[in-house]
Amino acid sequence: MENKAELTPLITVLAQLRKEGVKLDFKVTEEGMLSTMDDKQKFGPDEVRIVNFYRFEGESNPDDMAILYVLETTSGAKGTISDAYGTYSDETIETFMKKVQDLGKNLDTRI
Prior knowledge:
Elements: H1 4-7, H2 9-19, E1 24-28, E2 34-36, E3 42-43, E4 48-57, E5 65-73, E6 78-84, H3 91-99, E7 101-102
Parallel strand pairs: 1-6, 4-7
Antiparallel strand pairs: 1-2, 2-3, 4-5, 5-6
Organism: Pontibacter toksunensis
Protein name: Phosphoribosylpyrophosphate synthetase
């Protein structure tokens, strides 16, 4: 029997990031703030930077694309947020991420 994690690159990347200390999962609130899933910490775009990102394409359908952002906040919190990529992206997440400082990777280009 094959290991499901090996078949799902997103899961593999998340597992590796967890080992590297990237422990939190983030969301973007309706107010346009980055928040921990428990809503205990909130950050504006000026308090967040994109450390890295990974893009994934569906095996059976190239339109099934996702992007996983690795983020670090000014408080030192490290975590991830994912979104559909392209047509199906979440406008709230996309708007927030365009305001965040990235570290040299152009988010509008395809890899």
